[in-house]
Specification:
The chain is of the alpha/beta class. It has five domains: 3-138 and 224-278, Rossmann fold (3-Layer(aba) Sandwich), CATH 3.40.50; 170-222; 287-360, no CATH class; 370-412, no CATH class; 426-495, Arc Repressor Mutant, subunit A, CATH 1.10.10. Helices cover 47% and strands 12% of the residues. The strands form five sheets. The chain has a three-stranded parallel sheet. Strands 5-6-7 form a three-stranded antiparallel sheet, with no helix packed on it. Strands 12-11-13 form a three-stranded mixed sheet, with no helix packed on it. 40% of the residues are buried. The structure holds zinc ion. Zinc ion (ZN) binds at residues 174, 176-177, 179, 197, 206-207, 209.
Length: 498
């Protein structure tokens, strides 16, 4: 069973009486999406799909936490740095989008996430959490936490093992400068509160304002460790996961549970934890712009293969990816291999896992291997010709991706070539002479080894000689496939002329 199916079964067992099950997930959209970002919506979506398959009614809410403070300028926004600097510390939903494309800075990256979800076929109900605050949906929770402030604080201190100084359940939005990161609440009566805007958070400083406001004015947000358990109540969450960083001892998963049980007096919803997506051993960084953005990735990899890459490993395993072109091609090939697996009884465990992930990622639409499409496209630069030669209309479903690889110049070394035939000499000429028009790729491949053995030369050397004759370099795509793609007749004509 795939982990998502196991989790779905737990949800069903735990919430027997619920007519509609609710899966939630969320994130702060403060920078370009990376692979780890995709997990934030892909994983809950897959769980929701499993629940649907089991005949249950399901809602999946994706919560955009854009009421959080804008705390760093992404590398790709450097050209607007001067303009954006003035807004550091404000809620992301109140920072203008310098590109002018979206409603706010937070929405800019939410809109990007939406486009990626769309491409991957992930369709949640999207919630901009600032709207929920404006509509007063968090009010009763804020009042509860203020009323029980002492107990809440004790729980958080006990869980985190840290003394909380100048702490309040609320973060006020300064009426003067609009920042939420630089204020501290200094007094409240359970409804009205006073704050001072004088905190230095490193990336920005308070303006000195002293102000007063009230819960019903909605110029505040709950601190993360209270905001999270409150939203799980608001959405009636049955299950929500979080990355390993939230699941550490004393982390926010722990406090969420304690607050839910001891302050709210409810059972904590089901939870699960997932590993980091690392890029060659390092965490992705939104602000430093490390790593290939998903925006780029979805142009070069079919969506099914991206989902497969994220759904194949175990849930709690850290996924260490390497987004260099050879690795990406290998990832596509692994998905293609999974698509060819037979039915279950014949599979070994590792293959079963591949097949489960494949079934969740979406069916393969192309009959020609991606690597072969790369070979044909570079040879003919014309999809009509490629369709005709491969006999596969379906190759068009990956045509756009293949073109991107060629256009961007990211085709792995052995697949990047152009056909530059030269006159064959000696053994190469003798070998080519023996080929027949109808020979298939495997026959040709084996023939090289047989011929090398017969002549007492190293196969590797012979391969290199043949590549040199055809491509002007010593390495290339799998030779059998390459010769079939060019056409045996044509090769003979081009290389064996006298
Ligand atoms: Zn201020």
């Amino acid at each position: 069973m795939h982990w998502s199916e196991m989790l779905a079964e737990r949800v069903i067992a735990e919430y027997k009486d619920r007519e509609e099950l609710v899966v939630t997930g969320g994130m702060t959209t403060s920078g370009p999406a990376h692979l780890g970002t995709i997990c934030e919506f892909l994983f809950p979506w897959v769980i929701a799909q499993q629940l649907k398959r089991k005949g249950r009614q399901v809602k999946f809410y994706f919560i955009a936490d854009i009421f959080d403070a804008f705390d760093s300028i992404p590398a790709e926004m450097k050209e607007w740095e001067g303009e954006l600097k003035a807004h550091l510390g404000k809620p992301l939903c109140n920072v203008p989008d310098p590109t002018g494309e979206s409603e706010s800075f937070g929405d800019h990256y939410l809109d990007e996430a939406k486009r990626i979800m769309d491409k991957l076929g992930v369709r949640p109900e999207i919630v901009r959490i600032n709207e929920y605050y404006e509509q007063g949906r968090f009010d009763e929770w804020a009042r509860l936490f203020l009323r029980k402030e002492k107990e809440v604080k004790e729980i958080l201190e006990r869980v985190s093992g840290r003394k909380l100084k100048n702490w309040s359940p609320l973060m006020a939005v300064c009426a003067h400068c609009g920042k939420i990161a630089t204020t501290r609440v200094v007094w409240h009566d359970g409804e009205r509160f006073r704050y001072v805007c004088d905190v230095d958070v490193g990336y920005t400083k308070g303006c000195g304002e002293e102000g007063e406001s009230s819960i019903s004015e909605h110029k505040w947000k709950l601190v993360w460790r209270l905001h999270w358990p409150a939203w799980k109540q608001i959405f009636s969450t049955c299950i929500e996961g979080a990355g390993v960083d939230h699941h550490t001892r004393g982390g926010s998963e722990d406090s969420c549970k304690q607050i839910t049980e001891q302050i709210i007096g409810k059972k904590h919803p089901l939870s699960y934890k997932y590993g980091f997506v690392l890029l060659r051993g390092k965490k992705f960084s939104k602000s430093k712009g490390i790593g290939l953005s998903v925006r780029e990735l979805i142009k070069i990899m079919p969506p099914q293969t991206i989902k497969y890459m994220l759904l194949r490993p175990d849930l709690e395993e850290n996924l260490n990816v390497d987004l260099t072109p050879p690795r990406l091609l290998r990832a596509i090939e692994e998905y293609e291999r999974a698509s060819r697996l037979p039915e279950k009884p014949e599979l070994i465990r590792a293959e079963e896992k591949m097949l489960e992930a494949y079934n969740l990622s979406g069916e393969r639409e192309w009959g020609v291997a991606f690597a072969d499409a790369l070979v044909y496209y570079q040879l003919y630069k014309n999809w009509e010709e490629v369709k005709e030669r491969t006999g596969e209309e379906s190759v068009m479903s990956i045509a756009g991706y293949v073109e991107e690889w060629v256009k961007k110049g990211i085709v792995p070394e052995e697949y990047a070539f152009s056909y530059r035939p030269s006159k064959a000499e000696g053994l190469v000429a003798e070998f080519l002479n023996r080929l027949k028009a109808g020979d298939d790729a495997l026959t040709i491949h084996n023939a090289v080894f047989d011929f090398a053995r017969e002549k007492g030369v190293e196969p590797k050397k012979l391969f290199a000689e043949i590549y040199k004759t055809l491509l002007g370099k010593e390495r290339g795509p799998r030779l059998g496939k390459l010769l079939v793609a060019i056409g045996v007749e044509r090769v003979k004509r081009d290389c064996l002329r006298s």
